[in-house]
Amino acid sequence: MWLWWIKRQLASSDEEIRTKAWRKLIAAESPSTFDLAVYEFKSGNEESRYPAGLLLCKLADVRSLDLLVEMLEDESSQNKGRAFEALLKLRDSRVVPVLMRFVENEQHSWQQRKQALKALSALGWQPADPGQKLLLTICMRDEPLLLSMWEQSREYLIRLLEHKDAGLRSDAAKLLSNLADAECFDALTKGLKDSDEDVRGYCALALGRLNDPRAVGPLLDLLRTRKAELFSDEIRSALSNIGTKDAIEALEYFERLEERKKKLSPAYSKTSAPAHVNLSPGSKVPITGEYKCEFCEMKPVTLDPRLHVALDQVTSMDKLKPTVKRFEAGSKFSECPGCKEATGWTLISSY
User: Phi, psi (5° rounding) for residue 61?
Assistant: First the structure.
């Protein structure tokens, strides 16, 4: 009875009444509304096409397969995404060729292609093409299968690191980080410069697991950039795994640098900082005592030039010694001889 009444409302000349009727139909998601949704979708009435299509997507009935495909392949359809989600729910072999076309079209995002691959896998689809087999294996993250055909898989994953889709590059980098292989060194080093932060992070992890000293330079180059802020822990972990003298020196340097940044932050100065920290040249000495220059300890380190690390001035972390000077209360702080205007004086003992 209610469906008859809804049909009358859909035929009303009042747009508000028609809109409310469609809302009721869509909210109900009743299988009994299927025929009405198909009729309205095919009626040629553009106003009805969108809500009718939305209802068909929600019902996800295999009888509407052709209509769902029509919405999926219509670039102007507002229900394109919903049609794709409805097709994923259908457990019918007739969906396979539709999803296959979707997977093969690289214009779609990797996230959508992954969803289609997983739906195909659930339907028991077995790829015959080697490329599709590898793509499905990457999608399902089947590491044992990747290892069983590693020579082929490695080259494919390396090529994917240059794919235009950041999601696919990220998944490839993640697998390479778990399946560390020295043959991937150059590709992983290149991946440290990727525009996507996840790719950079996974490549850093992979390089750390290779334990290759050649990775120290590229990792340090990245750690010094702003691009490393979100995954500096991964880079530190990688340097720690490599464990060479240069890697450990670099870790110590960056730990001290982080401490320096913390001390200079407004939050630290208001809550955590001890009195008389990082006082600038020319400012008034608050209390008589010995002061050390904070910046002396933060000077960059020059490591082995073969590592291509452009850190300057000091040759080893164990030779870093802060400048210490005595100042009288009421006088003005001078510049540190080595740090000039970058000086920051911190009280270490008072008289």
Answer: -95, 135
